[in-house]
Amino acid sequence: MMRVAAMTLADAEAWAAMREALWPNGGDHGTHEEDVARLLAEPGDTVNLIARNESGKPAGFAEASLRHDYVNGCDTSPVAFLEGIYVVPAMRGQGVARALVAAVQAWAQAQGCSELASDAALDNLGSQQMHKALGFAETQRVVYFRKMLD
């Protein structure tokens, strides 16, 4: 039985560790701890959820926010945006992501949203498959470019 709940201060260490696993290039553990502290202190237009297995161990997390600017592929505003989702490797394929996304969707609907959006890197086929399995429809593919100006 999976239990999904809003993050609390008691979840901060596990949350930071899972964020570091999801976003290893997003800074060191201390950076993730700072982000977690900020999100707990001032959540703003976000929801931050943790999934725990039947033993109470962290199984995954999801972070979502309301985006009021244009969101690629969406027609409304605000749009709920799944900023990040992570499932502990040993818990994958057991419905953790489905439970987390269902909780995000319920939050989004409570905020008056009619669309839930997300993204995945072009080379992250596992994430793309998960999104499709959870009912997301691909809207577009993008490669960003830049040119340095002297």
Verbal overview:
- The protein has a 5-stranded mixed β-sheet.
- Strand 2 and strand 3 (58-67) form a beta hairpin.
- The chain has one domain (3-119): 3-Layer(aba) Sandwich (Aminopeptidase), CATH 3.40.630.30.
- The chain is globular, with a radius of gyration of 16 Å.
- The protein is built from 4 helices and 5 strands; from the N terminus they run βααβββαβα.
- The protein is α+β, with helices and mostly antiparallel strands.
- It starts with a strand and ends in a 17-residue tail after the last helix.
- 32% of the residues lie in helices and 21% in strands.
- Helix 1 crosses helix 2.
- The chain has helices at 12-22, 29-41, 96-110, 125-133; strands at residues 3-6, 46-52, 58-67, 79-87, 116-117.
Question: Summary?
Answer:
With 150 residues, the protein is α+β, with helices and mostly antiparallel strands.
Categorize the overall geometry: globular
Beta-strand residue fraction: 15-25%
Whole-number total of structural domains: 1
Mean pLDDT: 95
Report the total helices: 4
Helix content: 25-40%
Record field, number of beta strands: 5
Cross-sheet strand order for the largest sheet: 1-2-3-4-5
Largest sheet: 5 strands, mixed
Helix-strand topology string:
EHHEEEHEH
Spatial extent as radius of gyration: 16 Å
CATH class: Alpha Beta
| Structural class by secondary-structure content | alpha+beta
Query: For the record, what is the CATH homologous superfamily label?
Result: Gcn5-related N-acetyltransferase (GNAT)
